[in-house]
Amino acid sequence: MHIAVAGNIGCGKTTLTRMLAERYGWQPRYESVSDNPYLADFYADMERWSFNLQIYFLNKRFKEVVEISHSDEIIIQDRTIFEDACIFAPNLHDQGMMSDRDFDNYRDLFDLMMSLVRLPDLMIYIRSSIPTLVAQIQKRGREYEQTMRLDYLQGLERRYEEWIKGYEGKLLVIDGDNCKFGERPEDFIQVTDKIDAALFGLFPMV
């Protein structure tokens, strides 16, 4: 089984992935940050490094999807291949930080990969407002993220909402502004109750 956690930068994906892996005994797959050879360069010069970064993520994420499809474990994944192609790359292209040529090349590769993979069994989307994201990005203090442009984050937010509106798989949306699952145990219980209903309940999730 494949569970995925999606959401904008700073929404708490990694925290929720870790907590759910510990709660259910699922195998976590975290987004690679510390060993990413392009991330710091990208935030310093997005136009120069956007294509390199997105190809790196696409390659990593596709490998994960293939591994998950062959696994007998229940795996929970921090960010998905769909976010890279439906949100991050188009946002860079729209903002003039990825050329038409590079974006077309990227999309062709993504479309080929999509013919070989399926949607997760459950997508958990953390919806957070820009003020919440900015506060959490500042709190975690990653140096390379401090140069992030606000319009870049806003563009991602718009793309996420468009993507979620059209998402065709099983979906659980969490209010990241008010549901403080990492701080309040009662909020985390609300999340796990909804997951139990979605995955194991007798009735469809509302």
What do these coordinates show?
With 206 residues, the chain is α/β, with parallel strands linked by helices. It has a single domain, classed as P-loop containing nucleotide triphosphate hydrolases (Rossmann fold, 3-Layer(aba) Sandwich). Helix content is 55%, strand content 12%. The chain contains eight helices and five strands. The protein has helices at residues 13-24, 39-44, 46-69, 81-94, 100-114, 130-140, 150-165, 185-200; strands spanning 2-7, 27-29, 75-78, 122-127, 171-175. A five-stranded parallel sheet has the order 2-3-1-4-5, with helices on both faces.
Key structural traits:
8 helices, 5 strands, 55% helix, single chain, Rossmann fold, alpha/beta, 206 residues
Number of helices: 8
Choose one word for the global shape. globular
CA radius of gyration: 17 Å
Q: What kind of assembly state do the chains in view correspond to? A: single chain
Separation, N- and C-terminal Cα atoms: 21 Å
Which CATH class?
Alpha Beta
Could you report the average pLDDT, rounded to the nearest whole number? 91
Instruction: Supply the CATH architecture.
Output: 3-Layer(aba) Sandwich
CATH domain topology: Rossmann fold
How many structurally independent domains?
Answer: 1
Summarize the helix and strand pattern as letters: EHEHHEHHEHHEH
Share of helix, binned: 55-70%
Strand content: 5-15%
| Secondary-structure content class | alpha/beta
| Tally of DSSP β-strands | 5
> Which regions have little confidence, pLDDT < 50, spanning 5+ residues?
none
